[in-house]
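Hi R.,

As promised, here are both runs. First protein below:
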Amino acid sequence: MKLAVVGATGMVGTVMLEVLAERNFPITELLVVASERSVGKIIKYQGKEYKVIGLQDAVNEKPDIALFSAGGETSIEWAPKFAEAGTTVVDNSSAWRMDPSKKLVVPEINGDVLTKEDKIIANPNCSTIQLVMALSPLHDKYKMERLIVSTYQSVSGTGVKAVQQLENETKGIEGEMAYPYPINRNAIPHCDVFLDNGYTKEEMKLVKEPKKILRDDSFAVTATAVRIPTAGGHSESVNVQFQNDFDLDEVRKLLHEFPGVVVQDNIDTNTYPMPVYAHNKDEVFVGRIRRDESLPNTLNMWIVADNLRKGAATNTIQIAEYLHENELV
């Protein structure tokens, strides 16, 4: 298994290497790949040193799998070049997600859509992944009609520059701004760029991507995405109306039994998901599970996950594991 990590020096790329090591992914040859300005840098992986190479050199090496986390523009230009060389690309950017010819995959939900012919596979948006992990078993049982999601997203979702802005502001240091406003002691209702309809790109990802992953476009979705001053971990307040009524104990049981989901829901002990507890974990945590008393068949819940792990690196690697285990590469 010759594996390339494209964007290896970035925030998600660094976590990818950590997760690959933790999960003992069967690598016989590792290529660490980044932009020209990083070529020649040394990256350590499992006690060995690897020299960063450029994209064309990586294509020439014809890896079996390339895990991409280098941004949409890089992916649009280079993913097809890797695919033409016979490499299966798992891409973490938004470049291919809504392309009807590309699969958008969360392995616990729809890994079965993958075939040997899929040479560019899209990893969903971080907020989408944790959302569908909690919704999938409930949708299967009760059938969603309408979904309202409000996100509380960490600065790490924006990148290193945003993490540095928050750190600078907490220390009272002036520095480069990733956001148009201070993020410390603030909440900015602006994730990604605004679109013509008044929603942000992040909000529209939450509207569109779940339907593709769940293979069902019959339910309605609306979203508001907010950036908050947490260093890692995204949270979501979710209100979902179903066609069929539900029992709360059964809801908790369905979530508890779904792989990769952890129920933290005991108000007597103040047990509920929080980003501080999701840090460096691969699971999706669900709590504050309660009936919406203003509408029939409607549920409220709170979903938290580490956006750099299950929301990005871990899900990408789980796709690679699925490909390897099912002999699709």
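And here is the second one, sequence first, then its structure tokens:
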Amino acid sequence: MNRQKDKIQEIEKFLEELESILPLDFEEYKTDFKIRAICERYFEKIIEAVVDLAFIIIKENGFKSPEDDKKAFDILTEEKIISKNLAENLKDAKGMRNIIAHEYGQIDDKIVFKAITEELVNDVKKLIKQIVA
């Protein structure tokens, strides 16, 4: 349980730091390459930590091992730890993280901005709430 708590605290710290530098609007995000780079890096760090948390929960509870990172969220859904909707959102975020991390093609700033400002923070806070409950 301590590993879970430590990982949750790490994620909350990342969220707080990300929220402290979020631009007010897309225009600011688009024109400030430093802000863009920082937001993208936090997106990666948060998703990596969320995946780590999923694996910690799976291991500590003796659930079946997932074949890949995205399957970890399915297992948490099957075990009634998180909702199916949240699992789908987190799998989408994991896919977005891979695009950012590995720069597959052109990164669409509008999509990343929306994901960071509207989806990531809410979904990750929801995840923590569902895990703690």
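A quick note on the second one: The CA atoms of residues 26 and 95 lie 22 Å apart. Let me know what you think.

Best,
J.
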